[in-house]
Specification:
- There is one protein chain.
- By secondary structure, this protein is of the alpha+beta class.
- The chain has five domains: about 120 residues, Response regulator (Rossmann fold, 3-Layer(aba) Sandwich); about 100 residues, no CATH class; about 80 residues, Winged helix-like DNA-binding domain superfamily/Winged helix DNA-binding domain (Arc Repressor Mutant, subunit A), CATH 1.10.10.10; about 80 residues, no CATH class; about 70 residues.
- The strands form five sheets. The protein has a six-stranded antiparallel sheet with strand order 6-11-7-8-9-10.
- β8 and β9 form a beta hairpin.
């Protein structure tokens, strides 16, 4: 059966392009010029999938999608954002709302069809689960947001158990007629238990129909709970960029806690967190003793740091620790944790990374990283650039890997290499696009009169065709720091010279 697709777009040329591509692949296409017009069409005929522009007159894409999320009938329609703006923050906003994908113009026909295929396939998995008396699955493939929407639409009553991979239960959420009304996870109950469970990125879920005899402890509707959980998780993820690690200690530098923080956190919990900070507790100890969920605790600490209420205390390092200390690990975040887990498995597929400066992906074969791409860059160079950036949304996709192996080092070595590159960038603090690299005559030999090594020769060839240092670094087959090192070596040998352009 042909899938019905609704295109919401105010540019006729884009509609014509999409219509031609999609009709050729068997889609039945209808269109609307803005969100307001699209809502009227949906009332009469529910589409199987929606592609919507972001910037449109009368009602833009974000507001249009918010309206769809307010109804259980339309909230589960696969939704793809489309925009001419390549803004990572806008992409992240759309994906955090729950959209399946976020495409940027100019459009690629193959990418459009593949993207729609993934969205419809995911919707199909959820639809198959709806008719089952009880169902289970993998959180890597179906997120908690989607599970909640399915249970809400079908007005299910029962218990949803979330477990880690070995099958150890982490927590339970109880539903009554599709509404979440009770949650527990370890010692946490109510909203905090739900926030803890909503932060899970992997594991298993199982829903069993039953009538539990429990008292309601969740406050708020399903959608408001999901939105608040997403906000806390987003804020918690920023903490990795602000501190050295889970052993970090803090000191209070101001007693003036902003009302924006006080209004979102119970005063008793806030007092407990600041009390633990005063007693020099480590971050992991604060999380364990705060009385609230891990993402909520980390979000509060991140907000306190940003408000300059607290700051990380200088770590006390013993002589023994100093001798054992290796190069500081500057690669951090959920992506690192995901790769470490995957390394212990036989996973084959890729991690799609959306919301970064450029489209990015990491390719994995039997748990080992074999290639990466960051825009047009591939291999270690691309991987190090991925690790150098923050933010965005990662999607783990199980699929055959059909790319050439370009990365061969183990994960720890890759992390160390990326950390050195990050440290180099921080130390340089230079805009390489303002630096010109020029040849000093026809220097293709080193100081000993011998032919330059092959790697240096490749860089010299680039210098002949390009003068901008950033362009040379971008087009080099080597990692950024290695390219800069080779350029510096050529400069010391007198083969090239650097010229810094003055600001106009």
């Amino acid at each position: 059966m042909d899938h019905k697709v609704l295109i919401v777009e105010d540019e006729s040329a884009t509609i014509a392009f999409l219509d031609k591509i999609l009709s050729r692949h068997g889609f039945k296409v209808t269109s609307a010029s803005n969100g307001k017009e699209a809502l009227k069409l949906i009332e009469a005929d529910l589409p199987d999938i929606i592609i919507s522009d972001v910037m449109m007159p009368e009602m833009g894409g974000f507001e249009f999608y918010r309206r769809l999320l307010q109804s259980s009938r339309t909230a589960v329609i696969p939704f793809i954002f489309l925009s001419a703006m390549d803004d990572p923050s806008e992409q992240l906003k759309g994906l955090r709302m729950g959209a399946d994908e976020y495409l940027t113009k100019p459009l690629d026909a193959k990418n459009i069809i593949e993207t729609m295929g993934r969205a419809l396939e995911k919707a199909g998995r959820l639809k198959n689960s709806e008719s089952e008396v009880d169902f289970s699955g993998n959180l890597d493939q179906v997120g908690l947001n989607e599970i909640v929407q399915v249970l809400e639409i079908n007005e299910k009553t029962g218990e949803l158990t979330l477990s880690d991979k070995p099958g150890k239960p982490i927590g339970i959420i109880f539903f009554k007629n599709g509404n979440m009304f009770h949650a527990s996870s370890g010692t946490l109950t109510g909203n905090e238990a739900f926030y803890e469970l909503a932060s899970l990125k992997s594991g298993m879920f199982r829903f069993i129909i039953k009538t539990p005899d429990l008292i309601e402890n969740l406050s708020g509707q399903n959608m408001s709970l999901l939105f608040e959980a997403a906000r806390l998780t987003d804020e918690a993820e920023t903490l990795t960029e602000l501190i050295s690690g889970p052993s970090a200690r803090f000191r209070i530098v101001s007693a003036d806690i902003p009302n924006s923080i006080r209004n979102r956190t119970d005063s008793n919990h806030l007092e407990r967190i600041t009390g633990l900070i005063k007693n020099s507790a480590k971050l992991r100890e604060i999380i364990a003793k705060s009385g609230i969920s891990r993402p909520h605790t980390e979000a509060v600490i991140a907000e306190l740091i940003k408000a300059e209420v607290i700051e990380e205390d200088e770590p006390v390092i013993t002589k023994t620790e100093e001798k054992k200390a290796k190069f500081p690990m500057l690669v951090k975040g959920n992506l690192v944790k995901q790769l470490q887990k995957i390394e212990q498995s036989s996973f084959t597929g890729k991690i799609d990374i959306q919301g970064r400066s450029k489209p990015a992906a990491i390719f994995i074969q039997n748990g080992r990283v074999v290639n990466a791409c960051h825009g047009d860059t591939v291999g270690e160079k691309a991987l190090f650039r991925i690790f150098s950036e923050r933010g965005g949304v990662c999607k783990i996709i199980h699929s055959p890997v059909e790319v050439e192996d370009k990365i061969f080092d183990p994960l720890d070595a890759l992390f160390e290499g990326a950390s050195r590159e990050i440290a180099w960038r921080r130390q340089m603090k230079k805009d390489f696009s303002s630096v010109r690299v020029v040849l000093n005559g026809n220097h293709e030999i080193n100081n000993n009169g011998q032919t330059a090594d092959p790697e240096a020769q490749k860089i010299l060839s680039l210098v002949k065709s390009q003068e901008n240092m950033q362009t040379i670094i971008d087009q080099s087959p080597f990692t950024d720091v290695k390219t800069a090192t080779l350029l510096n070596g050529l400069k010391k040998k007198g083969a090239v010279a650097f010229q810094v352009s003055k600001a106009p």
